[in-house]
Amino acid sequence: MKVQEIIDFLRKDSYWYDHRCSCDHILIGRNDFEVDKVYICWVATLKVIKQAIENDVHFIISHENCFYKEGTTLPYNIRQFKQIKKELCEKNNITIYRCHDGWDRFPKYGVCDTLNEKCGFNFIREKTTDFHSYADIEEEYTVKEIAQKIANALCNYGSNHVEVFGDEKKEVKRLGIGVGAISDTSWMYNKDCDCMVLADDGYTNWIDLQWAFDAGIPCIIYHHSINEKPGIEHMAEYLSENISGCKFTYIDEGYKFKTVDSTINE
């Protein structure tokens, strides 16, 4: 199967975004490679690329940009490792396709809906175009109890914790949740959420957390990669169910976060 055929399938019927104006495109390589094995990951780290080389895999689908960022004044360290990755891909005929905007909101299997299901509350995502959801909490749950439930749900994706900012004893009636860097605290506030679940790079400490604190709205915080990885794993399942003659494998790129607690008592 050609790389472009797989890309076309992922884009098929994705009316909620225009791939011509999105970041979903081939980052390196060619679209006419014939492939029978595909790696799928949150981001194609050097670890993933080297594993692809070892296992004769020539197509990687990466949710995030594996070349860090674009620009003409990038620091040397970023340019250095960007070049290392590109040379490995070129030498070994590896194509990397970024599948981001289309997959975040993909119904059922995508990042938003998979995260909602994993967390175990009855979240409502009103429109396919939405990045955010909310759940009315009918049972008695405190912020800390919700945080524990989410931490348990996502512990297999590279983190042994979530963080709580604000009153952990507050009872929650409506919970808001967002994915990745697009987490929008104003959206959740306008939906009357009294607790918000945010990705670590989806808010500003000095703006979003400050006004949330002033408003008395506790926040549960997890890492960007941790809340998106379940949906990326689901992509491998979705493609395996719908495309024959090609093996799709979810690969752990190595992002791991652990807490080191202070030995000094507060």
Textual characterization of the structure:
This protein has helices spanning 3-11, 46-54, 76-91, 101-104, 111-119, 143-154, 185-190, 205-215, 224-242, and strands at residues 26-28, 37-41, 59-62, 95-98, 132-136, 163-165, 174-178, 195-199, 219-222, 247-250. With 266 residues, it is of the alpha/beta class. The strands form two sheets. The chain has a five-stranded mixed sheet, sandwiched between helices. Helix 5 (111-119) crosses helix 9 (224-242).
Termini separation (Å)?
59 Å
The outline comes out as globular
What's the average pLDDT? Answer: 95
- Helix-and-strand structural type: alpha/beta
* Helical run tally: 9
| Widest sheet: strand ordering | 1-4-3-2-10
Give a count of the beta strands, DSSP E runs of length 2 or more. Answer: 10
Spell out the key features of this protein.
single chain; 266 residues; alpha/beta; 5-stranded mixed beta sheet
Summary?
The protein has 266 residues and is α/β, with parallel strands linked by helices. The protein has helices spanning 3-11, 46-54, 76-91, 101-104, 111-119, 143-154, 185-190, 205-215, 224-242; strands spanning 26-28, 37-41, 59-62, 95-98, 132-136, 163-165, 174-178, 195-199, 219-222, 247-250.
Question: Topology, please?
Answer:
Elements: H1 3-11, E1 26-28, E2 37-41, H2 46-54, E3 59-62, H3 76-91, E4 95-98, H4 101-104, H5 111-119, E5 132-136, H6 143-154, E6 163-165, E7 174-178, H7 185-190, E8 195-199, H8 205-215, E9 219-222, H9 224-242, E10 247-250
Parallel strand pairs: 2-3, 2-10, 3-4, 7-8, 8-9
Antiparallel strand pairs: 1-4, 5-7, 6-9
Helix pairs in contact: 5-9
